[in-house]
Amino acid sequence: MAQETKNRPEQIAEVDKESKKDAMILFLSDSEEKEHFLSRANRKLLSDPLNDDNPITVQVLGICSALAITVQLEPAIVMAIAVTAVMAFSNMIISALRNLIPNRIRIIVQLVVVASLVALVDQVLRAYAYDVSKQLSVFIGLIITNCIVMGRLEAFALGNGVYKSFLDGIGNAAGYGLILIIVAFFRELLGAGKLFGYEILGHKGATLAESTGLYALGYENNGLMLLSPMALIVVGIIIWVQRSRNRKLIEA
């Protein structure tokens, strides 16, 4: 009896430890609790996708939307925000449920979570930015099958805590959105002489005398920039510049 009484505190401590481990589904793990919220590792989750591990220029994912919705800057920004919201919250949800999801149906669960968030984002856009929603058309719905979203759920959210998964979602969505915005900036500026629909390079009149800004000097918009192949060329230029500055990204 004395021996059982002596061992009881150790048994209770062991049970508490196991209970705490199981309870980490919705909270931080022990290692994450000891790590500062803005530690170097957490900051890398946000910064690496912007450069060394960019989803588009390094991982070569999400190219289709980069070609299709970057004719104008506004829809590119809206698309970037939409993907950020979907990735951040889907990563959090899958990470929170990772210990409850049977391995055989994990892809189905991921698709259900992402599809639900995409439907919510689509309804918000229809309510508050209907014109942009029409411009984006089916590409909002195609976020469901975006390689970046599904890839991060499989590669990161299923094996890490909620907070880290949230940062990973934000970081990769930001890296994706950065490329969209850069491509859209140059395509709209050089292809239409506008940004957000406002004339930046001047007004193009019927004659040089009626034109202002660069158009008065004989400048002409490059109509090729409005075609989808030019988006691929701009992405290629970004990849070239990135690898010129960071030689370790060049494959042997």
Automatic annotation (TrEMBL):
EC id: 7.2.1.1
Organism domain of life: Bacteria
GO terms for MF: oxidoreductase activity, acting on NAD(P)H, quinone or similar compound as acceptor
Coiled-coil segments: none
The entry's keywords: Cell inner membrane, Cell membrane, Ion transport, Membrane, NAD, Sodium, Sodium transport, Translocase, Transmembrane, Transmembrane helix, Transport, Ubiquinone
Sequence intervals crossing the membrane: 76-95, 107-129, 135-153, 165-186, 223-241
Top-level EC class as recorded in UniProt: translocase
GO BP term (any one): sodium ion transport
Reactions that this protein is recorded to catalyse: a ubiquinone + n Na(+)(in) + NADH + H(+) = a ubiquinol + n Na(+)(out) + NAD(+)
Principal cellular location given in the protein's record: membrane
GO CC terms in record: endomembrane system; plasma membrane
Signal peptide limits: none
Cross-referenced Pfam families: Rnf-Nqr (PF02508)
InterPro entries: NqrD, NqrDE/RnfAE
Bilayer disposition of the protein: Multi-pass membrane protein
Subcellular localization, as worded in the UniProt entry: Cell membrane; Endomembrane system
Subunit field text: Composed of six subunits; NqrA, NqrB, NqrC, NqrD, NqrE and NqrF.
UniProt similarity note: Belongs to the NqrDE/RnfAE family.
HAMAP family for this protein: NqrD (MF_00428)
PANTHER family xrefs: ELECTRON TRANSPORT COMPLEX PROTEIN RNFE (PTHR30586), NA(+)-TRANSLOCATING NADH-QUINONE REDUCTASE SUBUNIT D (PTHR30586:SF1)
Summary of the function given for this chain in its UniProt record: NQR complex catalyzes the reduction of ubiquinone-1 to ubiquinol by two successive reactions, coupled with the transport of Na(+) ions from the cytoplasm to the periplasm. NqrA to NqrE are probably involved in the second step, the conversion of ubisemiquinone to ubiquinol.
Protein name, as recorded: Na(+)-translocating NADH-quinone reductase subunit D
Source organism (scientific name): Salinimicrobium profundisediminis
Gene: nqrD
